[in-house]
Amino acid sequence: MKVRDIQEILNAEVICRDDLLDTEVYAACGSDMMSDVLAFVKEQAVMLTGLVNPQVVRTAEMMDMHCIVFVRGKRPDLNMIEMAEDRDMVMLCTDCEMFTSCGKLYSAGLRGGSAQ
Amino acid sequence: MEDVIKLHYVVPGDDFTRAGAASGDVKRTLKQLGISPAVIRNVSIAMYEGEINMVIHAGGGEIDVEITENGIKMALADKGPGIANVELAMKEGYSTAPDNIRNLGFGAGMGLPNIKKYTDDFRIETAVGVGTTLFLNVNIQ
Ligand SMILES: Nc1ncnc2c1ncn2[C@@H]1O[C@H](COP(=O)(O)OP(=O)(O)O)[C@@H](O)[C@H]1O
Ligand SMILES: [Mg+2]
Predict the structure, then answer these.
(1) Chain B closest CA to A62's CA: distance in Å?
(2) ipTM, interface predicted TM-score of the complex
(3) What CATH number should be reported for the domain holding residue A98?
(4) In this complex, which of A41, A53, A79 lies closest to B105 when CB atoms are compared?
């Protein structure tokens, strides 16, 4: 699916880089623990998280991710948004909770990805 | 070709928000050099976890990176409290990080195991009260 589809499914607000909404993504992960995200390299390009600090963007950067979705109404600050813009990442914000967000995206065909 | 690129970083210990800046810079440098994405990711993740550890456990430190055609060598040195039991520290899930660090998304006790997993050579030199140095190497084949 495209990042644009994620935005529509989660009724999410686009925070930055709406020029990249047509990026194709196949797999995602959801976590508030960044080391858990870093533990398994898959082809996942999307991170869903309820955590808001610059290390979320850094973690996504190290994992070559294209999109960060903040769940349950969390919002990044200006510094984080600038970091994401520089790193060609789309940021989305949704009011859905983590479980609901993951469930909706999974139902629509997004997967957890297979570990390499 | 015997080119060596050497990079040096000072990691401030008082600013969690900036932790990872050095790893990000190395990642960009490796990209410019045309190194394969898999190698870049292994280096990035290992160095990033090490950089985070320096900040949350050791009050900052210094990182040296050496890039050659054979691989990427990293030395991450701090003058923090040292690690009394390295075997225990290497266990997945073992962490002495306080709750405020866990609320920031780290302190799951996966850092050192992750670093070992993503590197080809991994060595810790540590002494209590003196500090810790990680010597890491990721091969380019
Ligand atoms: N540079 C360091 N200086 C002192 N202690 C460290 C250092 N790195 C790791 N440790 C110790 O090893 C433990 C495990 O590290 P790690 O696997 O990265 O987990 P975490 O950072 O999530 O606690 C830490 O909780 C800490 O007690
Ligand atoms: Mg750690």
Answers:
(1) 6
(2) 0.93
(3) 3.40.1390.20
(4) A53
